[in-house]
Design goal:
The chain is mostly helical. It is about 75% helix and about 0% strand. The chain has helices at about 1-5, 10-35, 45-75, 85-95. The model has no long low-confidence stretch (mean pLDDT about 85).
């Protein structure tokens, strides 16, 4: 039975999976060599970084909303602009 499995053609998906697995191992090895084994990022580290980035974006959005609200509150209200060509009609009716 083992010999019949060895003689089967290798599929594209199997080769792709193997190449991706090898590439992942190489990247992990390079990361360990560059930053040291104790500084290797984990999924937990990535998740925490994403949470902190989300909090920072939310704080920036809040600050922007507050700034816009302050600008709107301090800006004097101007009358609504006249409709297009309304001034021509006003001149025509006055004449």
């Amino acid at each position: 039975m083992a010999t019949s499995q060895l003689n089967q053609p290798v599929g594209f998906a199997e080769v792709s999976r193997t190449l991706v697995a090898i590439a992942a191992e190489v990247v992990t090895g390079v990361q360990r060599a560059v930053v040291g084994p104790s500084n290797v990022r984990t999924a937990r580290d990535n998740a925490w970084s994403a949470i902190l980035a989300d909090r920072a974006r939310a704080a920036a959005r809040e600050e922007t909303s507050r700034a816009v609200a302050a600008i709107v509150a301090t800006t004097p209200h101007r009358p609504a602009p006249m409709a297009r060509h309304a001034h021509k009609r006003a001149i025509a009716t006055a004449a």
